[in-house]
Amino acid sequence: MEKFTHGGQIHRFSNKERLLDFSANINPLGLSQKVEEAIREHLGEIVHYPEPYSETLRGVIATHYGVDEKSILVSNGAVESLYLLAQVKRPKNALITGPTFSEYEKSLNTLDCEIETLLLKEEDEFSLPVEDLYLGSPLESGDGDGCFFEPPPFWDKEIAYFCNPNNPVGKLVTTGEWEKILKEAEGYGTFLVIDESFLDFLPNGGAEYSALPLLKTGTKNLLVLRSLTKFFAYPGIRLGFCAAHPDIVSEMQRKCDCWNVNRLAQIAGVAGFLDKEYQDKTRKMLPIWQESMKGMLRNCNFITFVEPTVNFILCKLQNSNVTSTQLAEATAERGLLIRDASNFSGLDSRWFRLAIRTEEENKKAIDILKEAWGSLGEQEESK
Predict the structure, then answer these.
(1) Nearest-CA neighbor of 194 among 73, 291, 82?
(2) Measured by CB atoms within 10 angstroms of the end CB, which terminus of the chain is less buried, N or C?
(3) pLDDT digit string (tens) for 77-87?
(4) CA–CA separation, 240 vs 260, rounded Å?
(5) CATH topology of domain 10-30+277-382
């Protein structure tokens, strides 16, 4: 599997209308009715240019998240902000974690940048070693007289990328912990990128985990990334934003194409934020569907999983020569797309990721998984 291949490759299949797509982590509720109505109502506006910098949507975002409007850049998907930042900062070296979203690395590959990967440990469920990032990791002295601390892994890096909750793992870091990490990073002159693309799925929008409040300190060492397409279920229109010090946003704006966000995306963005009922229902139902999915997976004796926090779950195949690539091919033949996770740094050919969707969809997905697994097991036995 190619390194930078993502989930959601549904257009490769001729029968896409009949496929269950568990490879992309999109809101199980689907598109908000109010968003759909807004798009239909404003469809005629595509004969005009959109707002050059999504001014209306930027104001709505600022109000929703309590961030200064001048600190916000609306982008054509969250990924656009990554590439703009790379062009503004042009770092010579960087730290990323593994496993994590691959576009951090890919955006840096546009530069002459040396990338170091901090591999997270399976025995810790791939949790970020938070204390190591602001205290340093303990290092026993050679004479046994005491304990010294190594500096944090980003101490010699110009930029470091973190994902919260981390995709594909789902582990979280709190606002208080980010505050300590940011203070340490500022001391070393390291710029932090914190991707919060899935945080909106949590109760209260994940406020206790967000780094957005730290921008109020005036720091110039932080950029927070947000995707809107996951939570509001419109990945096909590409919409996201980043938040940073106004000086950094201004530099990124100068690198950005005018009209980078189309008019219907701007309309959909505003309508999504105004639909509070949709947001509340998502946060009410997702924990129920999480528990349902976990219960069904526990009854699959060939799978273990990492405890989920949002709308995806990382799974591992047990005691078999069957690979996640083979499983993904077998489920696709039966109408289910799963995310082969073997191309994530730090994961091998036993790992795959599932979206968490509605109760009925989850049951169908598990039934297909079991059927595909049984078929692959029979093939292994016949060899």
Answers:
(1) 82
(2) C
(3) 999 999 999 99
(4) 11
(5) Aspartate Aminotransferase, domain 1 (3.90.1150)
